[in-house]
Amino acid sequence: MVARTAASIWRLRVAYIALLCLVVAIVSRLYVLQVSDQQRLRSWGEQISVRKEVVPAFRGSITDRNGRPLAMSTPGMSLAVDPSKAPPAGEWLSLVAEEAGVDMTRLAARLEKAEGRRFMYIRRNMTPEHASRVMDLGVPGVTASREARRFYPAGEAAAHVVGFTDVDDRGREGLELAFDDFMSPKQGSRWVLVDRPQKAVRYLPGGESEAFGHDIQLTLDLDMQYATYKALKAAAIKTRNSAGSAVVIDARTGEVLAAASFPSFNPNEISTRTPERTRPRFVADLFEPGSAIKPFTIALALEQGKLGLNEVIQTPKLYKVGRKTISGPRDYGELDPAGIIKNSSTVGTAKVALRLEPGDLADRLRMAGFSQDVGLSLPAEAAGRLPSPKRWSEIEQATLAYGYGLNTNVLQLARAYTVFANDGEMRSIQLVRGLPPADPVRVFQPGIAPEVLAMMGLVTEQGGTATQAKIPGYSSAGKTGTAIKAGVGGYSEEARRYDASFTGLFPASNPRLIVSVVMHDPKGDQFYGGNTAAPAFADITREAARILNIRPDQVDGLVAKVVKP
Predict the structure, then answer these.
(1) Rounded distance, CA 264 to CA 280, Å?
(2) Could you tell me what percent of the chain has a pLDDT over 70?
(3) E strands of 153-208, at which residues?
(4) Helical ranges in 247-405 per DSSP H
(5) Per-residue pLDDT for 311 more than 50?
(6) Are 462 and 515 in contact (CB under 8 A)?
(7) Are 326 and 343 within 8 A, CB to CB?
(8) How far apart are CA 32 and CA 373, in angstroms?
(9) Which of 228, 231, 249 is nearest to 239 (CA)?
(10) In this structure, what are the phi and psi dihedrals at residue 71, rounded to the nearest 5 degrees?
């Protein structure tokens, strides 16, 4: 009995000790979980159930003067894969490649190189509908994330003005690049609690607020942009030009209503973004304007009293200046200033230029904006050059007077022609609304420019060099330019490479628009400005009259009297 009692006491003590050890173990474990290892365990738990989610903010949009979109951000998706979770390459790879629209061979090669990594993009900037078809395949490791997708509604018509962004939504060309910081958004973030299948349960406090990019509004009129690009493209194809540009500006305000280049590209299609196509030629391509400079020469001579309005000048086919000989298409005989402009007499213009003081014409052309940036903030703009020799030879004076020895771009040329629409004052160019315009610059004294404008009105009439620029019911004025392109050996008629242009004011009685068109390297016999660029001018102004509701000002060849506001 005593022995049994001792055994019971011993077993009871062992049970107490075991229970005590269990309590100590539990308390120790609780201490570890709640105190010493709390941060690590909390972090581990949050990694499983809490995710940091990016809140996308859209890039600022670009619109035309009427608020119609030229560049906008839309919801997009990106597809990615975790190579460590993806099944071995097989049928799933071809299915994903087909639905994602990517090359399966390249995707397989990229997946092989990504072995050991936890993330690899399959494709970015997809539409949500497109991405959902891939996700419906249910391939392990394949995920989709939201991001902004840039879209350009005007396509190739406005591509050179607007530009485009890269896959990371950063500006790469045009205004997208020039105003990249201004339009760029700031992405936000938020914490989200997810369940085991990684679906959101609820959003948690914290994170950063998103900030949308700023919008910009242009002076462009989308209808005018379409019409200008259409006319330019048709003319370039017809005359087999290698390239061309056309711009339309408001003659009174200097606002750019349209600016197009050919060849163009579709900013929505990466495959079309080649350097040859993405070049904004209306500000980037320089050319010698040729006879388009002749109105400035005549205007300066009239202002300085070196030429009379009714003075007659002999204009033979050949005219010797020093050791050089200047030649014209034919002997025009006696021409007054209006006749020199109408017939584009190179000899007559050279004779007038030699009456001027050396360097005077170059200084006046500089005042008219030649060799000066047009100030549109487009990254590819080239300012051009004007000669400034210390000593001017007679041949340099003469050739500058008919547009050789300097170069310009088509928008710069159009800006210079605003002097003839505003009684001698040059207007600054505007493309982005909200930016303060520069003050007008007086280039010629009042009364001179209207006289020259009347002379340029004869260029589009019967016997002028640009009759194809005329449209029924409207007066127009302007000047053709056909310049031989300089090659390795200098200027050569045999090379048959030209820059052909026409810059005009419409309507001539009260100019609303200035349209400048240039064609580079027209092929065949149609290489003059009058039969390559002038028809495009007519097509553009015909559409402009309809779009802008410009009333006819000419009936039976007579120009209606218009009272300017």
Answers:
(1) 9
(2) 90
(3) 164-165, 171-173, 188-194, 200-208
(4) 275-278, 281-284, 294-303, 337-343, 346-353, 360-367, 394-401
(5) yes
(6) no
(7) no
(8) 72
(9) 231
(10) -150, 130
Known catalytic residue at 291: yes
pLDDT of 494 over the 80 cut: no
In single-letter form, the type of residue at position 340 comes to I
Alpha-carbon distance of 313 to 331, in angstroms, equals 12
Which amino acid type is present at position 244? Answer: G
Mean per-residue pLDDT, 202-207: 73
* Angstrom distance (rounded) from CA 382 to CA 159: 18
Q: Burial level of 48, CB count in 10 A (0-12/13-18/19+)?
A: exposed
222-559 classified as CATH 3.40.710.10: yes
How far is the C-alpha of 341 from the C-alpha of 455, rounded, in Å? Answer: 6
> Reduced to 3 states, what is the DSSP secondary structure of residue 177?
helix
Give phi and psi for 292, each to the nearest 5: -60, -15
Alpha-carbon Rg for the chain, nearest whole angstrom, is 36
The structural domains of the chain, with segments of one domain joined by +, span 52-217, 222-559
Burial class (CB in 10 A: 0-12, 13-18, 19+), 521: middle
Measured CA to CA, the distance from residue 506 to residue 513 in angstroms comes to 5
Q: From residue 95, how far is each of 98, 130, 369 by CA, in Å?
A: 5, 13, 59
Q: Which residue has the tokens 């607007």?
A: 162
Q: What pTM does this model have?
A: 0.83
Q: Which of 78, 264, 291, 345 is catalytic?
A: 291
Residue 237, C-beta contacts closer than 8 angstroms, at least 6 positions apart: none
Per-residue model confidence (pLDDT) at position 441 = 96
DSSP letter (8 states) at residue 33: I
What gap in Å lies between CA 554 and CA 479, rounded to an integer? 20
Question: What is the pLDDT of the chain when averaged over all its residues?
Answer: 88
Range 297-315 average pLDDT = 97
Q: Measured between alpha carbons, how far is residue 377 from residues 262, 264, 382, 556 in Å?
A: 21, 20, 11, 44
- Cα 477 to Cα 410: distance, rounded to the nearest angstrom: 17
Sign of the Cα torsion 527, 533, 538, 542 reads positive
Distance CA 340, CA 347 (A): 9
CATH code, 52-217: 3.90.1310.10
Residue 329 bridge partners (DSSP): none
pLDDT digits (tens, 9 = 90+) for 52-75: 777 778 899 999 999 999 999 988
Residue type, 247: V
Pairing of strands 142-151, 69-81: antiparallel
